[in-house]
Design brief:
Blueprint lengths: L2 H22 L10 H4 L3 E3 L13 H10 L2 E8 L5 E3 L6 H4 L10 H5 L13 H8 L5 E5 L5 H12 L6 E5 L2 H10 L5 E5 L11 H8 L4 H4 L3 E5 L6 H10 L2 E7 L2 H7 L5 E4 L8
Parallel strand pairs: 1-2, 1-9, 2-4, 4-5, 5-6, 6-7, 7-8, 8-9
Antiparallel strand pairs: 2-3
Helix pairs in contact: 3-6, 7-8
């Protein structure tokens, strides 16, 4: 290869490598604000059992607070602009009705019951009052419905909340909105190896999200990655080069917990009691 050709190829390769590293780089100046999360296990959707204590319910959050666990929860918005705490797009699994929560009014949603209990889907403001800053809180903004409007409303509520909290989403556009409109809030990019797990997303998007290549849009303060996908090249490179706070989701046994502690700074768990003998 002639010298000039080599230099062009090397220059192009360097530009690609530089662009790739630029795309996956997080923001790293908020680690101190996340210290309360480092020493507290985070209960996924509250400390629930989905028998008498449903996920994402006031009883599940009360139980987590009583045990001293942090809380991760999910926020969506109804057609009348109320923020409610619920995970799935459809309420079918938890409430037996095939409808999307974001296409229901809050009155319609409150008429439902979670599982076989008399417990209602809670309003986000009531959940905040229940937690009351007693334990660290991770607020996931769901991507269904008018998610940016829901994010803006969530931020407004959180402005008056006293206690450690962070926000996260799978959607880089939501994290980018937070970067632009609420830079003081610690934000996280949720991700996984979408190439390994079915998602219904187009292949190019799965590739970008798996490899954290939309991080340039939002510069997240932490990366919340599926703990089963440890070893994914971009996650490992990001972790090694930039040392972001890494959050593991979702740990479901003590064996997984011990393995995750070797890699992750923050642990989100469900389906077991991590303190049981």
């Amino acid at each position: 290869m002639k010298g000039s050709t080599f230099l062009k190829v090397a220059g192009a390769a360097g530009a690609l490598a530089g662009g790739y590293l630029f795309s996956i780089a997080p923001r790293t100046g908020k680690r101190a604000q996340m210290e309360p999360f480092f020493t507290t296990l985070i209960a996924h959707r509250g400390f629930f059992n989905n028998v008498d204590i449903p996920e994402n319910s006031i009883p599940a959050f009360q139980r987590a607070v009583e045990r001293g666990f942090g809380i991760e929860l999910d926020v969506q918005m109804t057609t009348d602009g109320r923020l409610m705490v619920f995970h799935d797009e459809s309420v079918k699994r938890m409430c037996g009705v095939e409808r999307a929560l974001t296409k229901m009014s809050s009155d319609e949603a409150r008429a439902l019951r979670l599982g076989e209990t008399d417990v209602q889907i809670p309003f986000f403001e009531d959940v905040l009052a229940t937690i009351d800053g007693k334990v660290p809180l991770i607020v996931e903004m769901k991507t269904e419905g008018p998610s940016i409007e829901a994010t803006a409303k969530t931020v407004e509520l959180l402005k008056a909340y006293e206690g450690p909290f962070v926000m996260e989403s799978f959607d880089p556009r939501i994290c980018a909105w937070l970067k632009e409109h609420a830079p003081e809030i610690v934000r996280g990019q949720l991700a996984m190896d979408f190439m390994r797990h079915p998602s219904g997303l187009p292949a190019p998007l799965r590739f970008l999200l798996s490899n954290l290549m939309a991080d340039f849009l939002s510069r997240p303060d932490f990366i919340a990655y599926n703990h089963l996908d440890v070893g994914q090249p971009s996650f490992e490179l990001c972790r090694t080069l930039f040392h972001p706070v890494c959050v593991a989701w979702t740990i479901k046994s003590k064996e997984e917990l011990e393995r995750a502690k070797q890699v992750f700074d923050v642990i989100i768990f469900d389906s077991f009691d991590p303190e049981a003998e």
